[in-house]
Design goal:
The longest helix has 5 residues, at about 1-5. The protein is mainly β. A hairpin with a 4-residue loop joins strand 11 and strand 12 (about 210-225). The protein has two helices and 13 strands. It has a single domain (about 1-95, about 110-135, about 160-244), classed as Beta Barrel (Porin), CATH 2.40.160.
């Protein structure tokens, strides 16, 4: 049961960075983007020492009914060559079942993350720009398993991953742009290793609204004592950006 629960759908978010026109050097331009990530999850989870490895491999369509709640919001701002981005995500999933000889069992999984990064626009032309950023991703992961109302497993981990990132913005047509984003981090300071890749196509509806479609992949490999998290989350995304 827990294997099915741990692979339930997670809807999450990361910045979909629509193309922004050139601004005066002393002016900030910013945007806020709520969006959903139709993600599949695969990997293994070991909650504590001597606990069994929980393996999972579920697509979005297989796990979407397990989602209880989700909240995702990202933001991006730029002043001349200075760029700043932030992302907050939360999701909660659960699944019920039973173990022999018919004891009711319920599992819950919560994840919270916040990404903060700042950097410099090292290259800018009329049709494309390149940003280099550094920052951190903060994680809080909780896993609970209850049998007949009695706690069996309680595991919670908090860790922070330093990250370095590249982001490029390419103007394809008057109303179309593409964004590619890549970060890597962990370096043993938080997780052993984490990497994220994102690509989107963005359509400018009007001066302030953009629609985006794309694909995101996030890998995490974390070990602390007897706890090990090694999973990959990947899938398509859809977002709506308000620029101000």
């Amino acid at each position: 049961m827990l294997r099915k629960f741990a692979t339930s759908c997670v809807l999450t978010a990361f910045p979909i960075l629509a193309a922004l026109p050139a601004a005066a050097q002393d002016e900030w331009v910013g945007q806020v983007t709520p969006y959903v990530w139709a993600v599949g999850v695969s990997g293994t989870l070991t909650p504590f020492t001597n606990a069994p490895n929980l393996s999972f491999n579920r697509s979005f369509s297989e796990g979407r009914d397990d989602l209880d709640a989700a909240f995702f919001l990202s933001g991006f701002a730029r002043r001349d060559r200075l760029v700043v981005l932030a992302d907050v995500s939360y999701s909660s999933s659960s699944r019920g079942g039973s173990i022999p000889p018919g004891i009711p069992l319920k599992g819950e999984l919560e994840q919270r993350s916040m990404t903060l990064a700042a950097g410099w626009r090292v290259h800018r032309q009329k049709t494309w720009a390149l940003d280099v950023l550094g920052g951190a991703r903060l994680w809080n992961i909780k896993a609970n398993v209850d049998a007949a109302g009695t706690p069996m497993v309680r595991a919670e981990k908090n860790f922070t991953d330093p990250i370095v990132a590249l982001r490029t913005n390419i103007q394809l047509a008057p109303r179309w742009s593409a964004i590619a984003y890549l970060d890597a981090g962990g370096f043993g300071a938080g997780s052993d290793y984490t990497m994220q890749a994102l690509i989107t196509a963005n359509y400018q509806v009007n001066d302030n609204i953009f629609m985006s479609v794309g694909y995101r992949r996030l890998d995490v490999d974390y070990t602390d004592g007897g706890t090990k998290i090694d999973w990959t989350m990947a899938g398509p995304l859809l977002g709506l950006t308000w620029r101000f």
